[in-house]
Structures are given as structure tokens and as C-alpha cells.
Amino acid sequence: MTDDLTTKLSFRLNNTILDALSKYAADHGYEPMAYIQKVLTRAAVESGYMTPDDAWKATAYEDLFEIAKDKSRELYTKIPFDENWNLIVFQNLMADAEIRAKYEKVVGGNAYESGLPGKTPLNMYLGWYIKNAVGAVPKMVGGKPARAFVKNEPIQSYTLLLPGDDYKTPVKKAA
């Protein structure tokens, strides 16, 4: 489904520029290509060549990506990491009325309704941002990423995750 909405690009970029973008991306919880996509999206929106609806949707996507990345990092410092990290972060996002309202406007309906066409690409990207924000890696089973399936959640499936190499157990604050 995302193939209908996206185009794969291949281009050359000066090594020093890529190095700088990669360092900035890592410091801000992005993979380099996700950060480059963010920069290009911002440029396209600001260009004035998009319809107002397309510009709003592109901006809303980027806002939700940033919110998900920040929430993932925030929770990472507060609670132990779990292989269901994608679901945990999604549940925390949907618990916030403003975030849920923005999400529902983008997907065109109730967050807990299945089958909305806007959910598939958005949820997939949100999962990537949630994972990458904390340096998690997919749990592999038989050489393939392990997936979990759930009902009555904004997501119906997600990749199970493991902490990355730099994982540190969150420090619990004294009560």
C-alpha cells in the first residue's frame, strides 16, 4: 500500500553533508534517511507548490512522527523496555486527547476503527519512528522480524522489538 503513496529515490550526496546530517539525525532520534525525508518534506510544504490539503497532511504526518519519537524517548527513560514497545508507545499516545484527535483527523476516523485507508502507511511509519527513537532492533524469528497481532487497538499488528546495543535500564526515581 505504501508503494502507491511513495517513490523510492536514489541520489548522490556529498559525504560531508551526509556525515553532518547523520550526526544531527542521531542526536535527535532519527535515522539519517528519516531526517533527510523530514527536511525535504518541510521544503516541499514551504515551497507553495502543494495543495493546502496535501501540505496540511504532510505537516500533520511530520508532527505525529515527532510526537511519537519524543514519546518513545520519554517512556524509555521512565519504564523498562519491553518487546511490545510499539504497542506501549501507541497506547500512551492515544491516551492523550490532543494527540488522538490529530491522529484521527489524519486517518479519517476513530483511532480504534480498523480498515481506515489512512492508517496503514501512517502506523507503519510511526512504528519506525518509535523504534528508531530509542535505537531498538526487530526481534528476529527464523530470519524474519517477529510480529504481534492485537485487537481493539489503533494498530492491528506491529513488530516486536529488542533493545539496541546502547540500551541502559531506566533509572527509577525514588518515590
Low-confidence stretches: none
Strand count, sense and barrel status of the largest sheet are: 2 strands, antiparallel
What average pLDDT do the residues reach?
A: 90
Estimated helix fraction: 40-55%
**Count the strands?**
6
The structural domain count equals 1
Number of helices: 6
User: In whole angstroms, how far apart are the ends?
Assistant: 47 Å
- Based on helices, strands and strand pairing, what is the structural class? mainly alpha
**Order of helices and strands, N to C?**
HHHHHHEEEEEE
**Whole-angstrom Rg:** 17 Å
The fraction of residues assigned to DSSP E strands is: 5-15%
Give, in spatial order, the strands making up the sheet with the most strands. Answer: 1-6
Label the overall shape.
globular
Features:
175 residues; globular; 8% strand; two-stranded antiparallel ribbon; mainly alpha
